[in-house]
Amino acid sequence: MGYALYFTTYSSFLAKPTMYLEDIFVAPQARRHGVGHALFAHVRALAIQLDCGRMEWQVLDWNALARNFYEQRGARAMTQWIPYRIDLTADDAPAEGRQ
Fold first, then answer.
1. For residues 72 and 52, what is the distance between their CA atoms, to the nearest angstrom?
2. pLDDT 10s digits, 34-82
3. 70 is catalytic
4. pLDDT of amino acid 96
5. Catalytic pick from 6, 10, 20, 70?
6. Is residue 94's pLDDT more than 80?
7. What sign results for the dihedral spanned by CA atoms 33, 18, 82, 74?
8. Residue 46 CB: number of other CB atoms within 10 A?
9. If we measure between CA atoms, which residue out of 12, 8, 37, 42 comes closest to residue 22?
10. What rounded mean pLDDT belongs to the chain?
11. Which CATH class is domain 2-71?
12. How much is the pTM?
C-alpha cells in the first residue's frame, strides 16, 4: 500500500514540462517489498511518456533513507537552487497582497 502524488509544471530553461513528485509514501507494513520502487518507476515512466525534460522533488536533509532510495535510482541532490518559502499563515507574514 502506498501512493505517489505528482503533477507537471513547465521548465522555461528546457522548454519542456517538468514532472514534480510532490509526495511518495509507502505504508510501513509494505516497505521493503518493492512498492516504493514500483511507484517511483511508474511516475518516472509517465514523465518520459509526457516528454518531460526532468523530474524534481524535495527531500528533507535529515531523511537519509529517502535520500539513499533516490540516489540508488540515479538522482542527485541539487546544490545550485535554494528553496524559499513565505508562511502566509504566520502573524508576521508580509503585508503585500493582503486585503
1. 21
2. 999 999 999 999 999 999 999 999 999 999 999 999 999 999 999 998 8
3. yes
4. 67
5. 70
6. no
7. positive
8. 15
9. 8
10. 91
11. alpha beta
12. 0.82
